[in-house]
Design goal:
Length: about 550
């Protein structure tokens, strides 16, 4: 009887004891560089240019430049848009009133607001990715109605989306803008900028035809080059090229620039000094939770790289992903659409780490010159705390995703070979997403005195899950001892959203609460710095990484 009781007890123990998870093995070889750690992530953008000069906008821009080892490029819509009848800047809407015409139809230029925006960038050592658009009211071929009312569920594609009524005046506007910029900032500075014409001309942002867009581009490029022959211009910043329509628009535009007749000069060809396109994911609600779709965003990148490589003349041309995001509507709050509810928490940060690493992988695979990937995310004024916009900060408090960019900012030099037991590649995610299991993986870099490893635990489904045990081995160090610092983004670290919820989710925040939230929004260490001995050039670290968490391990000597 005692033996039966003992056997029953042992069987019960076996039944209730949790299964021991096998650690995910991640191996980094510091002696095997695989390519440059290009900081293509140091590009940011937004629709609402007037937020640039607000206190929170300036604060965020300062933080973005401080975290980056290179000058940050900033792309903003509406730099030529007129105010029209609008009461002020709004979601997806801004203006500068740079161009008007007097009673005789003579152009009147006013650069005060444009200058205040560009001054804000230049003061911080940032660079504009200068978007030539949208159409000023007095130059629009269909000016009425002009101001859109999107945030009130009204019309968006109004007079600012139309071609110019006079292409010579359009060219002169661009010439005067570039000339003024050189007079104000100096030619050396202005030639370090990037220029483009319009945004997403293949959808409602452009109410003209394809040929009218090419004509608008040609005249703008001619005006820019007349003022500044050394300035760099490119485009067309079309939408997701996984769509056959967008892919065709992109390739037809390239054909026009390479071999078509220039509308402005009558000659063959138009300046095209970089290729711009956009890449977006597509979240949805599945069984009551948010499911991301990184695969379609990576498919956009893949197809655009294939498009560029199909033109032999474009070998090694710079490429800019002009908007590179988990989905397509930064100004849509989670209240407006629940599928955007991932943005406040750690799903946004782990998605960013995982997707950017795969863009590096595709860059290597297609051997392209990726110059930049613009995160279309900034900050929104006069909105509730943590309203679920695609932004980097709320009321001047940094959200978890911004700390992933702080991690990337610590990586430079050469990317290193990474082997993982998980093994997901970009092509796997394009084909199947991250659905069957977690994507526990890493990207690593080496500079003369450090090795940095970013590790993430990502899944497309925003549901609770177990932490993943990680065994991180770094070999090829050639040192006897290193200092180890371990940073973390998860529910307990570098997370102002969880800190705000712990306060009860207030919309009125006291001064002391604000300071606490500011501190919670900074990148935090998981453990105090330690010194670790190296044996045979190799060291191993073990830790648990929560679902949607991101760790950053920095070894220095």
């Amino acid at each position: 009887m005692n033996r039966i009781i003992l056997l029953s007890f042992l069987l019960l123990c076996c039944r209730v004891a949790p299964a021991q998870q096998t650690p995910v093995s991640i191996r980094v070889d510091a002696g095997k560089p695989v390519g440059e750690m290009k900081p293509f992530w140091a590009f940011f953008g937004y629709d609402e240019p007037n937020y640039t000069t607000r206190n929170d906008g300036q604060k965020l821009l300062s933080e973005l430049q401080q975290l980056s080892p290179v000058p940050v490029y900033v792309r903003a819509h509406n730099l030529l848009t007129s105010k029209g009848e609008s009461p002020g800047p709004d979601l997806k809407w801004g203006f500068t009133d740079a161009y008007k015409e007097d009673a005789n139809g003579k152009p009147v230029y006013n650069w005060v607001t444009v200058d205040s925006i560009v001054d804000t960038y230049i003061k911080r050592g940032m660079k504009p990715l200068m978007e030539i658009g949208f159409m000023p009211k007095d130059l629009s071929s269909k000016p009425e109605p002009y101001a859109h009312t999107w945030s009130k569920n009204g019309t968006i594609w109004t007079g600012w989306t139309y071609p110019p009524k006079d292409y010579d005046k359009w060219r002169e506007l661009v010439y005067q803008w570039a000339k003024h910029s050189i007079d104000r900032y100096g030619k050396k500075e202005v030639t370090s900028w990037l220029w483009e014409v319009w945004n997403e001309p293949d959808i409602g942002y452009w109410s003209g035809t394809f040929d009218e867009y090419c004509k608008t581009y040609d005249y703008a490029a001619d005006g820019l080059k007349r003022a500044c022959p050394e300035c760099t211009i490119g485009g067309p910043h079309t939408t997701s090229p996984r769509s056959d329509k967008a892919y065709s628009y992109l390739t037809r535009f390239i054909e026009h620039c390479l071999r078509g007749q220039n509308y402005a000069t009558g000659k063959v060809g138009t300046p095209l000094q970089y290729i711009g396109f956009h890449a977006k994911g597509n979240p949805e609600i599945v069984d009551g939770h948010i499911r991301m779709n990184m695969g379609v965003q990576l498919k956009d990148v893949q197809r655009a790289f294939e498009a560029v490589n199909s033109f032999s003349e474009l070998k090694n041309i710079p490429i800019i992903i002009g908007e590179c995001d988990p989905e397509g509507c930064a100004a849509c709050s989670a209240t407006r659409d629940p599928k955007y509810g991932y943005r406040n928490g750690t799903m946004y940060s782990s998605y960013t780490a995982s997707s950017f690493a795969r863009i590096y992988e595709l860059m290597d695979q297609y051997k392209v010159n990726l110059r930049g990937a613009v995160s279309w995310s900034f900050e929104f004024e006069d909105q509730p705390w943590f309203a679920g916009f695609r932004d980097l900060a709320t009321h001047g408090v940094d959200k978890p995703v911004l700390n992933v960019f702080r991690m990337f900012g610590k990586m430079n030099g050469q990317r290193l070979s990474v082997q993982t037991g998980n093994g997901l590649k970009a092509t796997d995610i394009i084909a199947n997403g991250v659905r069957t299991g977690n994507d526990v993986n890493a990207i690593a870099s080496k500079s003369p005195n450090s090795v940095c490893v970013m590790v993430w635990n990502y899944h497309d489904d925003n549901v609770p899950g177990a932490a993943a045990p990680v065994e991180l081995t770094v070999s090829g160090l050639g040192k006897n001892k290193v200092q180890v610092r371990h940073y973390r983004v998860d529910d307990q670290h570098s997370n102002s959203f969880e800190a705000w919820k712990s306060l009860g989710g207030p919309q009125q925040v006291s001064a002391d609460q604000y300071k606490a939230l500011e501190k919670a929004g900074q990148l935090q260490e998981l453990t105090p710095p330690t010194s670790k001995a190296i044996a045979n050039g190799t060291t191993t670290l073990t830790f648990d990484l929560p679902r949607q968490g991101v760790s950053f391990v920095q070894l220095t000597w």
